[in-house]
């Protein structure tokens, strides 16, 4: 990864990435070459961007939303970063995309 010297000293809250990966295995389709889980972490303009893309199981695409993982993560991000970070989830066809953007220096 290409990380600037300034950004190498950034502190990232413990276990902040775990919820996204837990959701992949709980709600997504994993374990095949046809449906890879894509994880991208990069730094840009003083922000860390963490993106996870996975294929959704067809029967779960229209299922009732549940669980508290992302809700709790959003609350935690708000408490830590006071509005300067963002958690976004989107559905694009059969893909579920979760994005976390946090400042590297607060």
User: Helix/strand/pairing class, anyone?
Assistant: alpha+beta
Q: Estimate the mean pLDDT confidence.
A: 86
Strands, total number:
5
- Summarize the amount of helix as a percent range: 25-40%
Count up the helices.
3
* Rg (C-alpha, Å): 15 Å
Characterize the biggest β-sheet.
5 strands, antiparallel
Instruction: Summarize the helix and strand pattern as letters.
Output: HEEEHHEE
What would you say this structure looks like, in words?
The protein is of the alpha+beta class. 25% of the residues lie in helices and 33% in strands. The chain is built from 3 helices and 5 strands. The chain has helices at residues 18-27, 58-61, 69-81, and strands at 28-29, 38-44, 47-56, 86-92, 95-103. Strands 1, 2, 3, 4 and 5 form a 5-stranded antiparallel sheet that branches. Strand 2 and strand 3 form a beta hairpin. The longest helix is centred in the C-terminal third of the chain and has 13 residues, at 69-81.
């Amino acid at each position: 990864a290409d990380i600037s010297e300034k950004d190498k000293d950034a502190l990232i809250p413990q276990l902040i990435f775990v919820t996204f990966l837990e959701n992949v295995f709980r709600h997504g389709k994993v374990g095949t070459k046809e449906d890879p889980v894509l994880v991208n972490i990069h730094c840009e303009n003083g922000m860390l961007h963490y993106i996870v893309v996975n294929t959704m199981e067809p029967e779960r695409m229209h299922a009732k939303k549940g669980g508290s993982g992302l809700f709790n993560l959003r609350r935690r991000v708000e408490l830590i970063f006071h509005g300067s970070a963002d958690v976004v989830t989107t559905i694009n066809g059969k893909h579920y995309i979760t994005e976390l953007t946090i400042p590297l220096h607060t």
